[in-house]
Design brief:
- It is built from two helices and eleven strands.
- The chain is mainly beta.
- Strands 1-2-3-4-5-6-7-8-9-10-11 form an eleven-stranded mixed β-barrel.
- β10 and β11 form a beta hairpin.
């Protein structure tokens, strides 16, 4: 079953990338795999650790070249029914792989809440970020609306797939720069391998600086998630 959904998603991504992407200017394609660990310290307090790699798969032509490596940590506190606050820190190693690109320290503040309607979960996430690099500091504000649902039955059981789709607008502000507006649309199929492990395969489209010269970015995403 999971193979069926992976093939479908890969086919959709390939068609969108070939029909839409290659017909536009300012197009970049990336492959981004990541591995994360969710660790529950207490009933209402948990940690998340993640390592992610981003590589070019299309720039001016088809190719594969590593762009960056990200290491991140989030501390999350539940503050009510389906609500949480989080603070995170991330370090991006870019100069090593894609000079003269700069390394970056990112600090993130987060608020999340969700509602469940039958087997559908509607999630809301607000984030404020401070992206600190040698040349400048960027303040970014984000809101994500997501829909998640199991693809079998009313609840997700071991060995069953699920689906998620999300839309997220972003505003970036930096000293002496014009505000930058971005839009992201992400979808993925997931699979609950066991009580501690999930696998997700997805695609994302980003329209960056869409009030100026829009840059179209396509991602092929894979995630392996462990929960303890």
């Amino acid at each position: 079953m999971i193979t069926y959904y992976i093939k479908r998603l890969a086919l959709i991504f390939s068609l969108l990338f070939s029909i839409i992407g290659f017909s536009q200017e300012n197009v970049t394609g990336y492959f981004q795999p990541d591995i994360s660990l969710n660790y529950k310290v207490h009933t209402n307090y948990s940690h998340n650790f993640k390592i992610a790699q981003r590589a070019f798969i299309y720039e001016d032509d088809l190719s594969y070249r590593i762009r960056q490596l990200d290491l991140s940590h989030f501390s999350i506190v539940k503050i009510g029914f389906h609500q949480s606050l989080g603070i995170g820190v991330q370090y991006r190693f870019r100069n090593t792989f894609d000079a003269p690109g700069e390394d970056e320290l990112r600090i993130t503040e987060q608020y999340k809440f969700s509602h469940t309607y039958g087997n559908l979960t509607v999630g809301n996430r607000f984030r404020a970020e401070q992206r600190i690099s040698p040349s400048k500091t960027i303040h970014r504000f984000r809101y994500r609306l997501s829909l998640n649902a199991p693809l079998k039955g009313e609840k997700l059981d071991i060995g069953e797939p699920y689906f998620s789709i999300a839309a997220e607008p972003l505003l970036s502000i930096a000293k002496k720069d014009k505000p930058v507006y971005d839009q992201r649309i992400t979808s993925y199929f997931g699979y609950l391998l066991n009580r501690e492990t999930r696998l997700e395969i997805g695609a994302e489209y980003r329209a960056e600086e869409y009030t100026q010269t829009t840059h179209h970015i396509y991602f092929l995403l894979t995630s392996l998630i462990f929960s303890l």
